[in-house]
């Protein structure tokens, strides 16, 4: 039997609340766009003024607290229920960590980043170079994925500097056919980075009963509300010279945890 309680079941909101929250969701998304634009304008000004170390700290913290405010507003309105406080314990650990999570929705990185101000993300090179979005990513010293060799080198340097490198071993959001507690096969890379950086892999289990922002779900399409997410800490894996075998153990662990936490 599972030692973890299942994610709390979503109780459907009454009709009047759904009618109010549908336009509120669009207001929140518009507000998020405005916040992102303002942040990137500020980052553009700060980029030449701050050192790499100071700029990374300021940029990552700005992203974290901006998203934390956004999620707080979504929860206060009744649109979402998020339980991610378990991640706060990682902030007291000074060492670099790879944060490995399953990937049910497009919100996953934002949920993790809101709790961990040292978050480092790997992004599409086109976004890092984007004139409207790139300044914030460059200030936070996020990593572009255009060159695998340079990406791994930058990831290792970030981990050695105490960063929380967020990686989704599935490589993309979980396919809908896998089910709400399914998993895509893991892709290589994460355990090799752990080995090169000699950084542990801290697993994070993301549980949700909502299809919102899952693969194939448009951002403007509202799911049944409230939308529920729970993030909990899982097992920590040490780097292993047999990194391919470690990748399989990591995938097996996630499959077991997701199945064990399913509602009964």
How are the secondary structure elements laid out?
Blueprint: H1 15-46, H2 52-76, E1 80-83, E2 97-101, H3 108-115, E3 119-123, H4 125-128, H5 134-139, E4 143-144, H6 148-160, E5 164-167, H7 190-197, E6 201-208, E7 227-237, H8 243-260
Parallel strand pairs: 1-7, 2-5, 2-6, 3-4, 3-5
Antiparallel strand pairs: 6-7
Helix pairs in contact: 1-2, 2-3, 6-7, 7-8
Q: Compute the gyration radius: what is it?
A: 18 Å
Largest sheet: 7 strands, mixed
Write down the overall mean pLDDT: 88
- N-to-C SSE series? HHEEHEHHEHEHEEH
Shape: globular
- Cα separation of the termini: 10 Å
Our estimate of the beta-strand percent is: 5-15%
How many strands appear in the DSSP assignment?
Answer: 7
Helix content: 40-55%
- Trace the largest sheet across and list its strands: 1-7-6-2-5-3-4
Structure write-up:
With 264 residues, the chain is α/β, with parallel strands linked by helices. Helices cover 43% and strands 15% of the residues. The chain has a seven-stranded mixed β-sheet with strand order 1-7-6-2-5-3-4, with helices on both faces. It is globular.
Summarize the structure.
The chain has 264 residues and is an alpha/beta fold. The chain contains eight helices and seven strands. The model has no long low-confidence stretch (mean pLDDT 88).
Essential attributes:
264 residues; alpha/beta; 7-stranded mixed sheet; 8 helices; 15% strand; globular
